[in-house]
Write a structure and sequence with these properties.
3-stranded antiparallel beta sheet, alpha+beta, 4-stranded antiparallel beta sheet, single chain, about 300 residues, binds cobalt (II) ion, binds 2-amino-4-trifluoromethylsulfanyl-butyric acid
Length: about 300
């Protein structure tokens, strides 16, 4: 085996075993030839591309996620206790042969994340009763036949204040713009750029500590998808990549704190925060949402 510390010539065979010249493979920053994409993305970025049958299975899991979110949405009203959202999600998932991925994931104690007002993400369902004017994010991740799909939505409870309306609208449009830029040849940085530009041009801020992620075979896979970034930077998107985009947008500053429960992330300035998330696959000419809902 070749010593990895030895410098590889640009025209020599790539040490990754792809059979390509080094300059056309791991020594390049461009997109690899399609036939080698799978092994190259695996070696270079630890990205596991999905084949058509994998995508179909994630699509199925995604349908169940959306049915679950629809069920929760139909029950949102002042007085609903966040623990009841957990019960709804848990029972509905199990009834449909799914597994709620959050439960016991790295010690998370519930089957769904419910994040109210200044909670950015990873809120733990409990005794809190929703009240008129709240915003609430419900993040559902379901395993079906071994495949994961992950999506969330923010809802208004009763009548939203102007601030509540604004932050939910900006977060929703941020996700829409992030998705719109997904196609082969664009990069992970383009997604972050599209989101950050929209959020900041509207006077809001983008959370840095939590990012979108590869998903499907596991809850969190490579690559990370930051919701901020520069055009043209980062990994080039290629067909078969499945990941989430899930911008968390704050009305005030982007910085956060984690509460003593070690999960709940809140805005440091206690300003409102909203989020939308979808799982999507990169296709030949763009993307397909695997957890479809109207944005
Ligand atoms: N669903 C979240 C995401 O979008 C992750 C939640 S992790 C949990 O990545 F443990 F809090 F469930
Ligand atoms: Co996610
Ligand atoms: Co999620």
């Amino acid at each position: 085996m070749k010593n990895k510390s030895q410098k590889t010539g640009r025209n020599a065979l790539c040490p990754c075993g792809s059979g390509l010249k080094y300059k056309r493979c791991c020594g390049s920053r461009g997109a690899p030839a399609a036939k080698d994409a799978e092994s190259i993305y695996a070696r270079r970025y630890n990205i596991r591309l999905k084949k058509a049958s994998d995508v179909e299975a994630i699509r199925k899991a995604g349908r169940l996620v959306m049915e679950t979110l629809d069920l929760v949405e139909s029950r949102i009203e002042p007085g609903l206790v966040t623990e009841e959202i957990n019960t709804l999600v848990h029972k509905f998932t199990i009834k449909n042969n799914g597994v709620p991925a959050p439960l016991n994931y790295r010690g998370f104690p519930k089957s769904v994340c419910v994040s109210v007002n200044e909670v950015i993400c990873h809120g733990i369902p409990g005794p809190y009763a929703l009240k008129d004017g709240d915003i609430v994010n419900v993040d559902v991740t379901t395993i079906l036949d071994g495949y994961y799909a992950d999506a969330n939505k923010s809802f208004w409870v009763g009548t939203p204040s102007p601030d509540a309306k604004k932050i939910v609208d900006v977060a929703r449009e941020s996700l829409k713009r992030g998705i719109a830029i997904v196609k082969p040849g664009n990069t992970v940085g383009d997604i972050g750029w599209a989101i950050q530009t929209w959020a900041e041009d509207n006077g809001c801020s983008v959370v840095r500590e939590f990012v979108g992620h590869g998903v499907g075979f596991d809850f969190h896979e490579s690559p990370q998808i930051p919701h901020f970034g520069r055009r043209g930077q980062g990994i080039e998107l290629i067909p078969g990549m499945v990941f989430t985009i899930e911008p968390m947008i704050n009305l005030g500053d982007h910085s956060l704190r984690i509460l003593k429960d070690n999960w709940t992330a809140v805005t440091r300035d206690r300003s409102l925060s909203a989020q939308f998330e979808q799982t999507l696959v990169v296709t030949e000419d763009g993307s397909e949402i695997l957890t479809p809902y109207d944005l």
